[in-house]
Every structure is written in C-alpha cells, then in structure tokens.
Design brief:
five-stranded antiparallel beta sheet; alpha+beta; 25% helix
C-alpha cells in the first residue's frame, strides 16, 4: 500500500471520527422508523438519553477540534519521517551543511547555512547557542549527532503570519507569534529527521481578525488609499491563516539535543532565528 495514501487516509479517518455522533446509547429496537407509524417514533423523556453528542461548531468546541486536528497533522509528519528513516541505509555518506560544535560532540544540519547571532568565544561550552538563518530547508531536514550516546532530539517551531499583495510582503505583527509544543523527532543510529510542512501551524484566526491585522500592517507601511483598497479586496474572502494571500512562515526553529558523554547527561539548546 502506498505509504502517503495510508497516512493521509489515517488522518482523514481521524478527522471524521472527531465530528461523529456518539452512538453508545442505542434504542432497544433496531427497526427503522416508518412514516405514519406512531409505534416506531422515539418518545424518550429521560434527559440522560436526550443528550446531544454531536460536536457543535461553537468557539470552544472549534478550538478543541482544531487542536486535535493540528496534533494529527504533526503525527502525519512523524509517520513520514519514520518511513524516510527506514529507507535510509545505515552506512551513508556524511551530511554536508552547518556543523554546530560543542565541547564533547557535534550536530550537523544537512544543507543548512547560518551564522552565529553573536560572537561567543565560549560557545562550545555553552548550553545555549543562537544562529541567524541564511539558507536551506528546515522541513524534513536530516540531523546527525556525533560522539554522543543515548541521543534524543526535540524541535519547537515559532511562526508568524504574512501576506503578499501587489508584489509586496507584509508581516501581520498584531497577530503575534505561534509557538508549537516540543516535538520529539524520530531517529535511527544518531540520525534524525525534522518536522515537515504539516507541523507549520498558526493560531486560530477568523475573517475579522485577518482583516484588522492586515489593515494594521498596511497602515504601518503608510500605504495610500488606492493600494489599501486593492489589498483589502484581495483578502476579503480569506477566513483562515492558510487562505491566500496569507502564509504561515517560520520565525524561529529550536532544537534540544540530549544524550550522555562518559555517563554524564548532556542537554543543549540550538536556536535559529529567521529574518522576515
């Protein structure tokens, strides 16, 4: 069976289950209701059996559903990464990219380029290091850890919402940022794969919030009335962060690397900031 078809089928099944009605409490009769036959009409009066188990499209329930769906999307990325690791040969060519060197071990980020955010002569001994992103792709990126034992790697994403209209890019600062949970990355013999596109998410927003935030961004750049009118016309049908011309973009990507060296536990934080 095609793996991607299986994983997305699994996701779809999960989403359907979220909105399904509970059917644990069934009528004692399995016969269908017949039009005109009063004996087949349900006349239950006990309130405990009249509870509506269908999930309402209300703010609180919607947030709960959105969170569950977001978790499923992350699980799809994890399944894809696990499959990719299974297909990776044990004896592989060393990764080429950014090497972050600590006193006892190295971490290699495949095809990634970045420079330190500040000069720190003691960076190798530090528990936290910070870089400015220059190029490469964080999605499904291979990460290799050398000279560290019992290794685990976790990743956290921070995103912002942007919009491109009339060949100009706007950052919707008033919507703030979205910070994900810490995701434990799948690994195989000190080789790990980062999260994929499904894990890049943002806060729940509606049409009104998007319009207000976009208007604020236009005003911050002091756009004239003609530009503003065209821009607002372009976003009038947008109702979610994923609707064009809006785009969820990475603002910061962080990794926690844990392991042991000569029996001593090690924990390091590596942070990448992405200029927007």
């Amino acid at each position: 069976m095609n793996f991607k078809r299986y994983t997305y089928g699994l996701l779809l099944s999960g989403v359907i289950m979220l909105h399904a009605c509970g059917d644990d409490k069934k009528s004692s009769s399995n016969q269908p209701i017949i039009l005109g036959d009063s004996s087949s009409v349900v006349t239950e009066t006990d309130s405990q059996f009249l509870y509506n188990q269908t999930e309402d499209i209300a703010p609180n329930n919607h947030k709960s559903s959105s969170k569950k769906i977001a978790q499923m999307m992350v699980q799809v990325d994890s399944l894809n990464a696990t499959k990719k690791l299974e297909e990776t040969p044990v004896s592989q060519t060393p990764l080429l990219g950014l090497t972050v060197s600590f006193e006892d071990f190295d971490v290699i980020f495949n095809n990634l380029s970045a420079h330190p955010s500040k000069r720190d002569p003691d960076a190798r001994k530090s528990n936290n290091v910070s870089y400015i992103y220059d190029g490469g792709d964080f999605q499904e990126m291979k990460i290799q850890v050398k000279n560290l034992h019992e290794v685990s790697v976790e990743e956290k994403l921070v995103t912002k919402l942007t919009a491109v209209t009339q060949n100009e890019r706007f950052v919707l600062q008033s919507l703030g940022t979205y910070s994900s949970s810490w995701y434990t990355l799948p690994g195989k013999e000190n080789l790990f794969i980062s999260t994929g596109k499904n894990s890049i998410q943002f806060n729940d927003v509606n049409q009104a919030k998007l319009k207000t935030a976009f208007t604020n961004a236009l005003q911050a750049k002091k756009k004239n009335s003609n530009f503003t009118k065209k821009a607002l016309e372009e976003v009038k049908n947008a109702r979610a962060a994923i609707d064009a011309p809006f785009k969820i973009e990475l603002y910061s990507v962080q990794f926690i690397v844990k392991g042991t060296v000569n029996g001593t536990k090690i924990k390091k934080l590596i942070r990448f900031d992405i200029p927007l």
